[in-house]
Fold each of these.
Amino acid sequence: MIIDIHGHYTTEPKALHDFRAAQLAGLEDRARAPSSTDLGISDDELVASVQPQLRFQRERGSDLTIFSPRASGMGHHVGNEAIGREWCRVSNDLIGRICTLLPDNFAAVGQLPQFTGAPIENCIPELERIVRELGFVGVNLNPDPSGGYWKAPPLTDRYWYPIYEKLVELEVPAMIHVTASCNPAVHFTGAHYINGDTTAFMQLLQGDLFRDFPELKFVIPHGGGAVPFHWGRYRGIAQDMKKPLLAEHLLKNVFFDTCVYHLPGIELMAKVVPVDNILFASEMLGAVKGIDPETGHYFDDTKRYVDQLQHLGEAERHKIFEGNARRVYPRLDALLKKRGRVRTEVA
Amino acid sequence: MIIDIHGHYTTEPKALHDFRAAQLAGLEDRARAPSSTDLGISDDELVASVQPQLRFQRERGSDLTIFSPRASGMGHHVGNEAIGREWCRVSNDLIGRICTLLPDNFAAVGQLPQFTGAPIENCIPELERIVRELGFVGVNLNPDPSGGYWKAPPLTDRYWYPIYEKLVELEVPAMIHVTASCNPAVHFTGAHYINGDTTAFMQLLQGDLFRDFPELKFVIPHGGGAVPFHWGRYRGIAQDMKKPLLAEHLLKNVFFDTCVYHLPGIELMAKVVPVDNILFASEMLGAVKGIDPETGHYFDDTKRYVDQLQHLGEAERHKIFEGNARRVYPRLDALLKKRGRVRTEVA
């Protein structure tokens, strides 16, 4: 089976956007605040809204997408903490409903009500709710809730430890994913997302976080930002800092997805990053919407690139498409097993 | 001949560091401010200080390094504008002296006295001084003088236009290079430098700067940050934004260096970036100091990687090693011609 570990709900019904607009308008004029968190979106509307994703699954040949709210929509820098918490619940609830309605196509990953300056502990109730009550298999963790100004302490700081303890306890990985940028110098999908990945990796390289949390698992999206391209630089900096080899220091805990939108990029990644650390993903209906004039295929049809990696054996390709995802997301594996989808092993 | 377009003076005599320390101490206690900008460094000391660079030139087989002050030392976010201007002059003067003492080995690139919130016009006198009086062939331009908080407007903003007009008038390119990070979340060589490159490229992609400045030339160092690895993403975002193809939109004006510290990275770069846009560089005595245990060679011995690019013909390799540098840095070309080093053409 083919698991796409990185999809966002970017085809939300208008009612969700209207709710958010009312929420923010309500900060200025209470009369405009939404009167209820019931958006009045029916199950049929939800199913209709994800038809583009389902069509791409069929056309491109993937089976299941790990599905989370629109990343740029998380907006941790917007409004205040209370508004953010409400927005987070509403956004996660929609994801939960979609994954319940279409359990063969989607597994749920949530967002957290992070807010600059607020203790990370404040996110634990929502994390427990989505995992224990709604059956989510992972969560997105934003290393920069200030939206492009990098005001949070690095991921290795003890500020973050309470959420890591909970992640380990619940056996869910975190995808390190920023939200929109409110910094006019930093474009969201073209700079902030990629910089977020690179910065997070470097924070982890500098620290020794996984000595304290050997079971913690992070997925760094967008192919790890700049990291595989500069793999020699990172190996060299780690060596200059007297850190262990990256395999030992980070790669038991840090994984990369394949959201890199051209074959040469994926080829490089598969050359330098161990196959056990690569998880198939497309970020579909995400950052790039068009068709590559050089290939005639969608830029974000990343399965084609993985299929073209000549040097991979079937067992390795299976790891990228399924095995690694079931290992990194044990709650997904459990869900699938319960439905009779035993984890296949390719020799 | 082999031109390395990206080297920093990271082996400065102690007197320079002492001067800077006194300058900054003087902000707190005027009695500690340096009494003179004459550092008392002799020519012999200067020549002795760059022996490590000269040894690497000999051992690795490069001829001339385009040499600029230590990038992390520029420190545009430190102190105040007046202190920064003095520091900038002192730093540039040392580079100028080294390049006069060893004209066959070094050509000079300067730093600018940028300061957050100060008009960029304030940098023009120093730019004119180093180019017209000291014979510098280029300059480093910092897109984030706030040192990791990205408080400056994007490079496409009219804020920057006065310096662009002067760069065009003087026929000198700018290397887009950040300085140290004062943001604890963002490591300098492992995150801020690479993010700076990626962010600058994306700013240029979003705008139409080169319509206003068709002669302006930017070098983006460190292989362009994450850009070649995500070449498909950038081509796709440009297309979604209805921009022309990158070749038309940016590549007449934007160039990348080869400071990527492993062969697979350089291979990727040479696969996606046109050969006319790649300039050989090592950033030597820079970010990574060690020997790669996988190859037994220094990580930053980037000439080895370029030499190993199988698919390049001699004419293409010559462009990367010499031709492109002489085209992008016309004042370097003029200097070399004056010394009888005619630009060789490889058919």
Amino acid sequence: MLSGSASIDHTNAYFRHGGSHIINRLSSSYRFALLQTDAGARLGELHTPHGVVHTPAFMPVGTQGTVKGALFKDVEEAGAEIVLGNTYHLFLRPGDELIARRGGLHRFTGWGRPILTDSGGFQVFSLAERRTITEEGAEFQSHLDGSRHQLTPERTVDIQARLGSDIAMVFDECLAYPATRDEAAESMRRSVRWAGRCRQRLERLRAGATEVLLANPGQAQFGIVQGGVHADLRRESAESTRAIGFEGYAIGGLSVGEPIDLMYQTVAETTRHLPADQPRYLMGAGTPEDLVECVSRGIDMFDCVLPTRNARNGQLFTSQGRLNIRNARFAEDDDPVDPACGCYTCRRHSRAYLRHLHMAGEMSAAALNTLHNLTFYLDTMKRIREAIAFGAFDTFRQEFLRSVSRLSQDS
Amino acid sequence: MLSGSASIDHTNAYFRHGGSHIINRLSSSYRFALLQTDAGARLGELHTPHGVVHTPAFMPVGTQGTVKGALFKDVEEAGAEIVLGNTYHLFLRPGDELIARRGGLHRFTGWGRPILTDSGGFQVFSLAERRTITEEGAEFQSHLDGSRHQLTPERTVDIQARLGSDIAMVFDECLAYPATRDEAAESMRRSVRWAGRCRQRLERLRAGATEVLLANPGQAQFGIVQGGVHADLRRESAESTRAIGFEGYAIGGLSVGEPIDLMYQTVAETTRHLPADQPRYLMGAGTPEDLVECVSRGIDMFDCVLPTRNARNGQLFTSQGRLNIRNARFAEDDDPVDPACGCYTCRRHSRAYLRHLHMAGEMSAAALNTLHNLTFYLDTMKRIREAIAFGAFDTFRQEFLRSVSRLSQDS
């Protein structure tokens, strides 16, 4: 068993809380333990101040402090051990300072398990309006009300410190696909410089050298490897980011429209340059097939809006592939969505009923579909972990890929 | 203990099922037991083929086969023993014949507890377009797609038989308020004639003399007393409806805009003409105060969209009155919606968080608010029943009315 070398230890560090000095025993329990490897896949445990995450793990996306279409009790019942929160959204509404005054994102939302926050970079590049990127950071207008804001590497560290997530991400530049090699190189190097500034800022926060209210002193910070689909740039980015030193490493800039094989290849080329004893997080991916394929290439953590977003559109993931509940052939289908699934939706309701709810525009359609899709994703991760533990990951992978391609992709 | 005189007994009756004769032991368990009375309030048990409903009872509205904003497991957890389904909506979509082929509304929806269906009359008068009312029935256009339909007393009996609810309602004419005395009288007498046709039709169905597929052979049928706010018309309607003979009696045509005192007075004047040993259902009411006041006037059953509809708009019912979660004063309020409430929403989330979800337009805002409001309504009914059991209903009533008026009605 390899144990994470980058665990945080701030015992008896000072930090400021609401403007007044407080001596705080920072009982940081951040630690990653790699338990086993099998056919490229890794079984691990990520210890955080709010509990353990068994990896490979999928993180449901909780953009605005809630997983869309689901109550946290249902997210827990589906088996989620960690959720993702979006810094961009929470910064704009209700505001990181308000959340900090409530005691951080865990206490504000009532979700007591681990939380990872992104840095807001992706949303600045995909959602915000009239953005200007300089070496200093990003200026943009809110997609909500057009108000002007600035996000810098330092600022996103402060915001995430106030949110008090268990894992914070560095601020990176998200390049559109396709980009030229030069664009990818330039952008990647800027992201590395920004990563350095993020790390410096966090160290100042940890040392208590700022007025920032730290909602979670045990917060870890992950670097992000960029470089498009260029193996040499990915290598350079991985090495530069490792040189700064983080508690974990993410792969950004994938799942943005590139061919699927190129994505898998880039993942494989990147993970080989990442430390074995720290967690690796593939940002924004993906389909159930992507999860399995990227686990086989050494990924430990995933997040994606697919299970929740597609649920709201009526697309359901099953052990036999995808189905769209709008389809007329389900109008009198008394079977559950997935006979192999044990979720509340499948235990209690038929495809005919779910189709009716969807066609009638009922909110419970989205809720029941979301519950099922989350369960399918989280069950898949559980099955992946079991397969690795039994040294049977490659068999599992082949059977899984065969099984989920059975239904026509009718959406 | 008075026992219901109108219980159904069809043991070994014949009825048609899908066109072929089937001998069926109709194990109808419909029965109403009046257990206790106290200060005008009645404690009872309504036995139905799908279980017992403790009265006074509140029925959450499940218009399209789902309670808006809630999953059935949450409706159960909130304490609902019966829900209401809307015949008009289910007839139009997905259709009563489709539901009958699925085995009826219970099997189709996955809700296994008792269901009461209205007759569609109210929706024809409030939702449908270009309606024409004749002695035969109502012709109208669907609010969904403009398609033309006809509902007659006989047809609504057949539809509800296919839905297989535990309690079916007769088809009645719903008069707009205000109406002249002559209009109210004429309309009421037509409703009585329609009620007679509904009863005749149900008797034919029970005798197996039709091709209608009965999804629930133990289905009971309630008559509806009309007559506006005129005591003499209410009396005439009650007596005529009793003369036809039903398993229970509803009061219709109230909570439609008349002054609240006039509603309470009309309820009191109507219940005195209804049989003591059968359940009384006040249709479409009301506020928490209405429930308590009408229980004191002898009502056993209620339904209303207020808890669910207002939840979606951010209005929350509490033991101290109503509050609207949109209000800026809740932005940093860490208290639960109602400290006296034990629902999931109040156990886990703060007003600040609920306000954030509502302002962000998250579906979970509606879901959490709905869960709370339903719990408040159903808890109120439980406290009413306990108060009656202890002979303390009048004390409860006075304290309840004082308590819920404490907060300003700020919505």
